[in-house]
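Two proteins, back to back. First:
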Amino acid sequence: MQQPIMQEQHGIAPQIHTTLGTIQLSVSLSEQSLHPDRSYTLKNDTLLYVYHQDTLECELILCQLNPELPEGMSVEACWAAVFRIKPKLDGAIPECTFAANWQEGYTWTDYGSDTGQNLEAAQYSNEVYRLHLGTQDRDMLMLRRDQGDGVPLLFGQDMHGISNTDSKVWSSKYGLQVPMTTIAAGELCQIHFVVAWSRMVEDDASTWFAVDQLTESIVEAAGL
């Protein structure tokens, strides 16, 4: 990981400021919100938030993306956030929830679910701007689980290893939530959110394509 070149203020909640309002990024453990103790700006302007806890290690990477889009498509801006969390020592994290939620004062007037293959996304818009907020859906997270790619082995299963449908990714007018089942000792869990916006153009899907990203691609773009 790159060394930080500047230490930011303490106690600031990670946020993405968009043309339609502010989206706050959060992680909660058994419904208790965790708050970063430190935040740093790295050499490539990536923001790194560090959460100091006795039982776990957690950090949030926040960076601006330049997504590869189909020919003729473009976005005004695209930001991505990756949570990385793992238990310390021989413990386990029983339950946690990752979220990207709108804060009061947003200016979008229309909302709609806009999912696709491997993508859970929501569209927000007004007369001027269109914005998509996206993350990977349950099927993609289960594929990553099977590949040992930053998703706990118990995701999509109960404690006896039997498949269940309780592990879902939720989208609503409030934002996106990814509830995570038990993270065992030695496991690293990585969950991301991507936000992209552009001026309203009829039938333009640029922002939708922009939020359809792989976690590893985001981490690479962040220079980590």
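And the second protein:
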Amino acid sequence: MLFGTGIEEWRRGWRRTAGTVPEREAVVSASDHTRGAATTTQVVPDQRLAYTVLGAPAGIERILDAVAEHLVDARGFGPAVIIDDVEPLLADRGRDAVSALVDGLRARLDGYRSTVVIGCSFTEQTAPIVASLFDPVDDVDRIDHSVAAVLNGLRRDDPTTYGYVRRHWAEARDGIERCERNYPQARQIHAALSEPETTPRTLGTALSGLVTLDVLDTWSETVGPTRYDLTAYRPARMWAVGATVAVGEDNEMSSE
């Protein structure tokens, strides 16, 4: 299912990346490349390809119906459904449209032994919505984000702090987002948590790592314990940190 590219461009990219083509392939294109075109469906038997081009803007139900038509004969194949790239839909129509697409796709795939992969460019405009839609631990299998280089630098230069970030980023996120102070100390962020696994000290180490990762900042106008500037908190970057760490842990486990 295409939102950001034309059919041939996407298929060429697939061949370069995967080195092969699927045994059977169906493409639904709702990208800007087809804007203004009438809905057409074509079958190319010798290439084992069927494709539907939707005139844009296409409603979510219309997109899902086009996908469902291609799934009619695929129940016994365990189809893989790829959405690439959902970011244009997110930018044009917002969170509700993407939620409707994902929920509708889930309903239409009920009873199939299917795999669904959703690709989404992580832009400044859409990052907060992406973070609200997809859980960084459960929903992300791969992430390509600039924070990975900074995380690698932290792991190389300060492995202890990196370890605290890796283990406690989610608790740090919850404490930051629940804390009602603008410039709290680590113990005050910790106090906002219920049943924490961290102590104020270990949470403080994780928070210092998040400062290095440019997720939040420190407030310089103080003496004594460090105060954190939560007005500079970047929740979308926190999501990217969590997703990158989670994906890295999965890769480490799979290589053992």
